[in-house]
Design goal:
Chain A has twelve helices and no strands. With 306 residues, chain A is mainly alpha-helical. Chain B folds into two domains: 243 residues, 3-Layer(aba) Sandwich (Rossmann fold), CATH 3.40.50; 70 residues, no CATH class. Classes of the chains: A mainly alpha (306), B alpha/beta (357), C mainly alpha (273).
Amino acid sequence: MLRLIAWRTGFACLTIFVVLAACFTAVRMTGSPVDFLYGDGATPEQIVELEREWGLDLPLPEQFVHYVRNLAKGDFGNSIVERRPVTEVYAERLAPTLQLAGLALLIGTVVGIPLGIFSALWRGNLGARLAMGFTFFGYAIPHFIIAIILILVFGYLLNWLPSTGAATPLHYVLPAITLALPLMAINARYMRSALLDVLNQDYVRTARAKGLKEWRVIGLHASRNAILPLITVLGLEVAGLVNGSLIVETVFSWPGVGKVLTGSVSRRDFPILQFGVIMYAGVVVGVNLLVDILYAVADPRIRVRS
Amino acid sequence: MFASMTNSSIPSTAEKINHRSRPVLSVRHLKINLKTDSGNVAIVKNVSFDIHPGQTLALVGESGAGKSITSLAIMRLVGRGGNEEGAQVTGEVLLDTEQGPIDLIQAPISTIQMLRGKTLSMIFQEPMTSLNPVFRVGWQIAEAIVTHEKLSWAAAEARALDMLKLVGIPDPLARMRAFPHELSGGMRQRIMVAMALSCRPRLLIADEPTTALDVTVQAQVLNLIKRLQSEFGLGMLFITHDLGVVAQMADTVAVMYAGSIVEYAQVQRVFSQPLHPYTSALLRSMPSLTHDSAGTLLEPIRGAMPAMQDLPKGCAFHPRCDYVLSPPCTTTSIPLCEPSEHHWVRCVRSEQSKGER
Amino acid sequence: MPLEIKLCCIITAALALAALFAPWIVPFDPNATNILEKLKPPFFLEGFDGVHWLGTDQLGRDLLARCLYGIRVSVGIALLGLMVSAVVGTIAGLAAGLVGGWLDRCIMLVVDVFISVPFLLLVLVGIAVFGSDIIVLILLVGLARWESYTRIVRGQVLQLREMPFIEASRSLGASTSSIAWRHVLPNIASPLIVLITLNFPAILLLESSLSFLGIGVQPPTASLGRMVGDGRDYLIFSWWVALAPAVVIISITFVVQTMGDFLRDALDVRIDD
């Protein structure tokens, strides 16, 4: 088990390393990083000083080491557009993004999993079949189109909900649902198919033969096994949330980090872009690592293989 | 002449066989219909038997004869998902409990849940998949105990440990915390036995418990079951297709074919004087280590057992039978009769046709 | 072929033909702006001017024309990108499977790393560095899901390697590349076709999302995603500007996804996700 964790952690570090290298190369390809990071604000003497500090006269691998060391110190440079530290820019916008993502994850789980269970246990039920059919759309339609449709219907036609900014709690509804719909779909489908699969297993029959009440058979013995594929899917869902939040924040003018990141691309604000990419990549890799560990804890069979 | 044959009544004669008091399990006219794509099919047509305390009834037959589903019906585990979807079970299945005999077919599911694991237990064919892979085996046994007896979890685990020792698991304390995938097939089946017997049931149903095991392990597990049976005075319904196992384990034998019992008698009688052509054919198709007829060929039974939707008219076995008489074998359904004392056959060609009741 | 599939084929054919013959179907230049004609409603709403069947957008451009040309652009980019990823992925899979050893481990490590990071992030970096012109977009979008081909091809190669006829070829002196060409490729044709079909919607949606965000296809070129993005501000009164291209996108992805699922089941291909 420890070997498994060590291996996965090592791999996660490698992945982050590759992302860093990619960013490093990307920034280098477009010119001197000092220009970008401190561009207009520095005097020629300061530039020479910074270049030395950044080790730009050194061979590339050593530059990379310096680069990583600076990043580790927390020095991500200044935003070209806003002329202030990148970390500041992101810090003040982190909360809305986390809130939105957290809310979406919550809704996706709280609605999706019971829906999947319900539709597995009551297979013929019309409501269940309709709901599962509906989830297909959450799965197949891209975020930006879901957003547009929701805004059209609930924002303008019915005029129930606001669609720009994050001023009131009501503002959270449409963006959160947009992000949550694909999650609901995935959770419901996976839970349903996992549960159907598990209910046919011999050990469920054994549990009944032991005289356990039906709720315990389903709720404990069956569910505990059915939840396993869902854990693996959790990692995918977080990656999807990253993709989704970039789009959703733009559509709804949500004051979060996603909007900052996408904005930085067209503006060539490399420090912002670099930080955002590393941050998001770090989150996804970190979550995947946690998911792997969680899975190994949940499924004892995995601990034997590595 | 044949119309005067009626279904015999088994109880009184069964008493004579076993010379004991009330049977632990008394099955009468069990009939199971399953919903399939081709409509309702009768999988089990009319099964009756008794099992007495300390006695083993072996239910023998080919795959598809209806043996397993009979046992599942007794446990009320038939139907899709094991919760009785798409299945109709009729008849009477009396289980002798502390509160007197209860008809398992009519009882509400809450009663059944109370009885399962406590008064009647079942072990299954596939030990590899019959235990929950994410829970430790000691926990799974303790769970069965806690469900039925007013014990604390700690006390239940202590009893589970005792059960592990009883079934001969080496290093039982360590094994309590093992997961099923860490154990071999034979050990898992022992765990199943331990779990099934943990609350001292009166009846154990064993559905081909050793079929999936290696031959050497088979012998160990069978010996274990037999020893525990006599220790606990268990009645046992043992399902198998292996006549060798029957010889070792059974006191009475019921041979099933196409959903009905075709022969029912004590084990020695069935082996030495089989009265139904199917039974004799089964015996002839088995290799025998002790027989003097070394060098004789095994005789497989020609043809195959028909699917329950396509049963022939009359006796279900007649297309494969060497003694077929037409009529009545091909036209009328044959009832069970008792040509010789305590020996029932569903055949009109059985040698001694006296004693029809 | 079941009815739904026939329907999908018909719809695909109709869309393809409409896109190809766009200049003859709609007499308007998709990029010609005319402020006087802006935001005219489509044929099923009041105010329809009898000329612009799907109405016009905020700059007076005919929406039907833009949709049809938009299909050309978006689908074109997706198809070309698909070819890029299929070729790159297949070559990587062949190399990993046939050469084996350290190259195999290397390639599979790259694959694992790639899967771990959301691809969109890498695309953002790429666009920031290289810009948004069409070639760049094709290459970037084309690298999406290259690893899916690699895994399938490698799996097939590993299976085939064990087969006697490969050994026989080698003993007769055939080189690795000729074995790849003559023996391996015909066997991987089915899974590749299914994979290509199933990946198409993803790549189309990737390009649409990028264009929607404004960093994909640049104006004045019509791209379906961009049109949806631009239309967002006019949803309240002129919702058709955003909805028409959205419907087109959904239709294409849905139809292709359905056909891909059908192909996968028909050709009995197993794709590990």
